[in-house]
C-alpha cells in the first residue's frame, strides 16, 4: 500500500488555502499502479452479493467504472446538478463553504437492489451521505461505501456509523 500511496501527489492550497488536495491523476496515469489499485480494491468484492457500483462524479466514475468492469456489474451515476438528462431526484449537501447538489436518475435503482458506493476519496463524508440518501430514497440497499483513499483526520467515518466503510489507502 505504501507504494501506491506514494503515487498520489499532494497539491498544497488547492482548491483553497489550507487544503491539501490528494491528486490521484498521478496514480491513474501509472499503468501498473492503476491496475494494482483496481485489483486490490476489486478483490474485496469478488464474493460479495450486489447488483451495482454507484459511482460519484467525477473521479468516482473512473474508479467505479474500472471496478464495475472487473466485477462484471453495472454502474449507476451520481452526478452534480443539471447533468443527468432523464427524470431524477436530488439531494443537497454541505461543502466547506456553502452547499451543492447531487442527482440520480429515478429509474437507476429499484427497490431492494444492493449497491456498493464508490468514490476516490472520503474526506468529511458529506458527499457520500448525500449519495446514500439518493440510493435509499429509491429503495436501494447500501452494502458498503468504498474509497480509494481516506483522510482519516477528517473523521468522515463518524458520519457513516450505520454503514460498512472501506478504504484502500489511508492518510
Ligand atoms: P467529502 O464530502 O468532504 O467527504 O469530500 C469528498 C469528495 O470531495 C470526494 O468526491 C473527493 O474527490 C473530494 N475531495 C474532498 N477533499 C479532497 C482532498 N483533500 N483531496 C482530493 N479530493 C478531495
Q: Could you describe the 3D structure shown?
A:
This protein is α/β, with parallel strands linked by helices and 171 residues long. The protein has a single domain (47-170), classed as 3-Layer(aba) Sandwich (Rossmann fold). Helix content is 27%, strand content 35%. The longest helix is centred in the N-terminal third of the chain and has 13 residues, at 31-43. It is globular, with a radius of gyration of 15 Å. The mean pLDDT is 96. The chain binds adenosine monophosphate. Adenosine monophosphate is lined by residues 19-22, 56, 59, 119-127, 151, 156.
SSE pattern: HEEHHEHEEEEHEE
CATH topology: Rossmann fold
Average pLDDT confidence is 96
Q: State the share of residues found in helices, binned by percent.
A: 25-40%
| Most strands sheet | 7 strands, mixed
Strand content: 25-35%
> What gross morphology would you assign?
globular
The number of domains: 1
Distance between the termini: 11 Å
CATH architecture: 3-Layer(aba) Sandwich
Number of separate strands: 9
Oligomer designation: single chain
Q: What's the alpha carbon Rg, rounded to whole Å?
A: 15 Å
**The first-level CATH class name:** Alpha Beta
Number of helices: 5
Bound molecules: adenosine monophosphate
Helical/strand content category = alpha/beta
Biggest sheet, spatial arrangement of strands: 5-6-4-3-7-8-9
Low-confidence runs (pLDDT<50, min 5 residues)? none
List the helices and strands and how they pair.
Blueprint: H1 2-6, E1 9-12, E2 20-23, H2 25-28, H3 31-43, E3 52-56, H4 59-71, E4 74-80, E5 88-94, E6 99-105, E7 114-122, H5 126-137, E8 141-150, E9 165-170
Parallel strand pairs: 3-4, 3-7, 7-8, 8-9
Antiparallel strand pairs: 1-2, 4-6, 5-6
Helix pairs in contact: 3-4
